[in-house]
């Protein structure tokens, strides 16, 4: 049987070993961080060039594949009318239309919309020639702080088009006749657009006026 090994750890040896271990870990961590930084900065398969038709003009941008349509509009094209509210698709401030259908741009990736026609609030009327819905919001004081207004107006215009196209909502009772533009229909279809100032009754009045004028 082998004799027991006599082992004695000196304080100096322990301190030196601990220091070497700490330095090794620090350099290893720094090397990993530098590698990650290089990977993050190097363009490759995680980036794409996408062409969007925005308010009637073709715009090409190169973006990270994870970039939302909202961030492309705001950060790459400086179209800041479309607002970032909750960034979770719950407030409607980021509403735009894609090929005529309203979407929450914060939930949609830009690379999904190659060649699509995007309309933002900047493409709806001008200060000199307001869209009827924009004028109705002014007439009925359909906004207070105004932050949600671009999304509200974009959705409101789509609501009238959806009703006229016969697209039912959860409150549509009769699917065999033309859907009427009622308060209940408007409220249900606009429920995804939140106004934290509480101007809902005025927004309802504005949409109703436009629907009646266009009937």
UniProtKB/TrEMBL annotation:
Cellular component terms (Gene Ontology): periplasmic space
Listed Gene3D superfamilies: 3.10.20.30, [2Fe-2S]-binding domain
Claim: Ligase is one of the keywords in the record: no
Gene Ontology molecular function: any one: oxidoreductase activity, acting on the aldehyde or oxo group of donors
Signal peptide: 1-33
The UniProt record lists the keyword Chaperone: no
Protein name per the record: Ferredoxin
Organism: Puniceibacterium antarcticum
High-level lineage: Bacteria, Pseudomonadati, Pseudomonadota, Alphaproteobacteria, Rhodobacterales
């Amino acid at each position: 049987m082998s004799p027991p090994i006599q082992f004695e750890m000196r304080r100096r040896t322990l301190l030196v070993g601990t220091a070497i271990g700490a330095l090794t870990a620090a350099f290893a961590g720094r090397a990993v961080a530098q590698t990650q930084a290089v990977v993050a900065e190097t363009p490759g398969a995680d980036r794409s060039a996408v062409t969007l038709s925005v308010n009637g003009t073709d715009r090409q941008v190169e973006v990270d594949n994870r970039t939302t349509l909202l961030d492309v509009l705001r950060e790459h094209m400086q179209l800041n009318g479309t607002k970032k509210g909750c960034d979770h698709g719950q407030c409607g401030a980021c509403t735009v239309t894609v090929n005529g259908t309203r979407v929450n741009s914060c939930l949609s990736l830009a690379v999904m919309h190659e060649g699509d026609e995007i309309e933002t609030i900047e493409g709806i009327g001008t200060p000199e020639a307001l869209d009827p819905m924009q004028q109705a919001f002014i007439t009925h004081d359909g906004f207070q702080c105004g932050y949600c207004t671009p999304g509200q107006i974009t959705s409101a215009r789509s609501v009238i088009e959806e009703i006229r196209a016969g697209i039912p909502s959860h409150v549509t009772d009769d699917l065999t006749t033309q859907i009427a533009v009622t308060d209940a229909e408007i409220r249900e279809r606009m429920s995804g657009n939140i106004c934290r100032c509480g101007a809902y009754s005025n927004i309802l009045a504005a949409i109703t006026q436009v629907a009646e004028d266009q009937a």
